[in-house]
Amino acid sequence: MGREFLDVFEQWADSYDDTVVGHDAEYKEVFLNYDGILDEVANRSKGHVVEFGVGTGNLTRKILNRGLTVTGIEPSAPMRKIAEEKLNGKAEVLDGDFMVFPAVKNPETFVSTYAFHHLTDSEKSQAIALYGKLLFNGGKIVFADTMYESEEDYKKAILDAQEKGFHNLAKDLQTEFYTTIPVLKGIMESNGFSVTFTRCNDFVWLMEGVKL
Fold it and tell me: How wide is the angle at C-alpha 138 spanned by C-alphas 137 and 144, nearest 5°?
């Protein structure tokens, strides 16, 4: 994750939980059914879970409530601090990101929500290749993030945001590395995963891959 994105998350830490519950009109549709999306990711997880982009620990807590163990990876120190307070020592939250993180013994599920778009398509491919090497057959990747069915849909989302006067959202869509389902499907399959995509709202899809 680039320094510019890390700076955003460090500045966002204190207001993140307010944003995800819909207090920011620009991002209300992005985070529509936020709690249900996190529940779905948690419900599809198994074994020892590695979570990338822990943020303030909302998904981590849901996974722990299912009786699973979690190693959290979060590059932002302010986010880690909030998550650690929220989790009361029930899970490790370590410094790292999608590409560089401490060794985890026998991971069975890699999860993430609202964060994978900070990687370029090339970096996404490298990350998935790494996870494929770390997982045994039957291991899973369960990521929920903004993605699009086609480049045309991606461009339309930018125009829609501009027309609504959602300038911050439009800027995010233009400057971050949102990708398409065909690209992600190709990455997953080329690294030995069967993969399905489930729509969660107008922006977010859930990608579930199983190592073959």
Answer: 125
Average pLDDT of 157-176?
96
Q: Report the SS3 class of residue 70.
A: strand
Dihedral-angle region of residue 47 (phi above 0 means left; psi in -120 to 50 means alpha; beta otherwise): left
Contact yes or no for 66/45 (Cβ under 8 A): yes
136 Cβ partners below 8 Å, 6+ apart?
Answer: 106, 108, 211
CATH classification of the domain holding 180 = 3.40.50.150
- Give the number of domains in the chain: 1
Contacts of 122 (CB under 8 A, 6+ apart): none
- Residue 17 structure tokens: 């939980």
Rounded to whole angstroms, what are the CA distances from 211 to 2, 26, 98, 102, 140?
28, 37, 18, 22, 6
The separation between the first and the last C-alpha atoms of the chain, rounded to the nearest angstrom, is: 28
Taking only the tens place, the pLDDT of each residue in 80-93 is 999 999 999 899 99
| Strand duo 193-199 + 204-211: pairing | antiparallel
Domain that holds residue 110: 3-211
DSSP letter (8 states) at residue 116: G
Amino acid making up residue 33: N
Structure-block tokens of residue 123: 């970096």
Q: How confident is the model over 106-127, as pLDDT tens digits?
A: 999 999 999 999 999 999 999 9
The pTM of this model reads 0.92
How far is residue 74's CA from residue 128's CA, in Å, rounded to a whole number?
18
